[in-house]
Write a structure and sequence with these properties.
Layout: H1 4-8, E1 17-18, E2 21-22, E3 24-25, H2 36-48, H3 59-79, E4 90-93, H4 96-111, E5 129-133, H5 138-151, E6 154-158, H6 171-174, E7 179-185, H7 197-206, E8 210-214, H8 226-229, E9 233-237, E10 248-252, H9 254-259, E11 270-272, E12 280-281, H10 295-311, H11 313-327, E13 336-339, E14 350-355, H12 360-368, E15 372-373, E16 375-377, H13 382-387, E17 393-397, H14 404-414, H15 417-420
Parallel strand pairs: 3-15, 5-6, 5-7, 7-8, 8-9
Antiparallel strand pairs: 1-2, 4-10, 9-10, 11-12, 13-14, 14-17, 16-17
Helix pairs in contact: 2-10, 3-10, 4-5, 11-14
């Protein structure tokens, strides 16, 4: 079993006080903190081998390219994707939002006839359907809502159970023979509920639809194998998995990446370019990586992936499961309602809550005064808040460094909120 006390000591940012209290960081669903090995990796890259990748013949360029591609392989191993020349299934992007927009744009380009016969499987037209859910982050909802508007397709969605779980048992009803794309979150960033993917993925493939997974909240917290899940594409961000900001990844089954037309255009993604005829684009992943890549950040993300694998994703999941059990005691406090499952089953340690009679921003400020960092707002997921009859909430979320003492500090602070505000 991993020594999580020692692991916590690897995060220098946690060794400080906020408002005179030891920092308690419970906002990992928004962004995770970074261990020293990740911080040092980015610094080391800039100090020793900084150069553009896949361009230039000098030694630094070669070393930089090798480090970049080695990092891609490390990330692939974390999520069960293929890697190696001619087999790559990981595309580097600027983040999960960029990954999802890449897909929506590429599907739109296919709908315009780009990419030839191979890309027709991604094309949409009036009468076709795109399926999401009420639990989606806006980075899933909005790109595919816009894709529907551009192509004339109809947007449909899964509803939620009373406690906020996606109603996967309705897959045969929601996903129809007209469905071309299904885009669903693996874990809600509000409820923390793990989606029952199997029936949704199976139904999507039964009707010939492409399945897109938002894996932002699963990759950092659970063992994930995209091949085993049988998803077609998946998106996630490095900054939520103890890596740097400004970089993310798109997984795609190799044969689908080979058929997908590019979404952005520029240097390093084209084999041949002419003035009087269409360009010949490179094979994936280069086809989707126009311009200069965030090389230092990718290298550091690869270190983060290796670091997580060294701890063991099963160990991380078990640790956070225990922490989630403590966080769920928020629901035992008078006047506090948890948005999401109250039981510690098929969920992670992301717990959104509402304090009766107190605005979430006031709750957040009161808790921050105790040195405790939580998230305040709608968490870029307004439809799921409307499901619970709210516009905003507070959210506590765990990471590998979260301790039972952290959760108990939050419980103590939350227990005084309504009294402080005279309720």
């Amino acid at each position: 079993m991993a020594d999580f006390e020692a692991i916590r000591d690897e995060f220098p940012i946690l060794d400080q006080s906020i408002h005179g209290h030891p920092l308690v960081y419970l906002d990992s669903a928004a962004t995770s903190q970074k261990p020293r090995v990740v911080i040092d990796a980015e610094d080391e890259f800039y100090r020793t081998i900084n150069a553009g990748v896949h361009r230039g013949a000098h030694e630094l360029a070669a070393r930089s390219t090798e480090a970049f591609e080695t990092a891609r392989a490390k990330v692939a191993k974390l999520v069960g994707a293929d890697f190696g020349e001619g087999h790559e299934e990981i595309v580097v992007t600027a983040g999960a939002t960029a990954s999802l927009n890449l897909l929506a744009t590429a599907f739109g380009n296919a709908s315009l006839g780009r990419g030839g016969a191979a890309a027709r499987r991604f094309a949409l037209k009036p009468g076709d359907e795109i399926v999401v859910s009420k639990a989606e982050h806006h980075s899933v909802l909005l790109p595919f809502q816009e894709l529907a508007a551009r192509t004339g397709a109809m947007l449909r969605w899964f509803d939620l159970s009373e406690d906020g779980r996606i109603q996967a048992d309705r897959a045969d009803e929601v996903i129809t023979p007209r469905t071309k794309v299904v885009a669903i979150t693996h874990i809600s960033n509000v409820t923390g509920a793990v989606t029952d993917l199997a029936p949704i993925v199976a139904r999507a493939h039964e009707v010939g639809a492409v399945f897109v997974l938002d894996a932002c909240q699963s990759v950092p917290h659970l063992p994930v194998d995209f091949h085993a899940l049988d998803v077609d594409f998946a998106a996630w961000s490095a900054h939520k998995m103890y890596g740097p900001t400004g970089v993310g990844f798109l997984y795609g089954r190799r044969e689908l990446l080979e058929a997908l037309p590019p979404a952005s255009f520029g240097g390093s993604m084209v084999e041949l370019a002419w003035l009087d005829q269409p360009a010949q684009y490179m094979e994936p992943p280069a086809r989707f990586e126009a311009g200069t890549q965030p090389v230092a950040q990718v290298v550091a993300a690869g270190v983060a992936a290796d670091w997580m694998r060294a701890i063991g994703m099963e160990n991380i999941a078990a640790h956070e499961h225990a922490i989630a059990g403590e966080l769920l005691k928020l629901g035992d406090i008078d006047g506090i309602r948890i948005l999401g499952p109250r039981d510690n089953h098929d969920r992670i340690g992301t717990v959104a809550f509402d304090v009766a009679g107190v605005h979430p921003h006031d709750v957040g400020q009161f808790i921050d005064a105790q040195g405790i960092a939580i998230r305040v707002g709608h968490h870029c997921a307004q439809p799921v808040h409307r499901h619970f009859g709210l516009y905003a909430s507070n959210r506590a979320s765990t990471g590998v460094y979260t301790s039972l003492e952290d959760t108990r500090a939050l419980l103590a602070a939350a227990g005084h909120v309504r009294t402080f505000f005279g309720l």
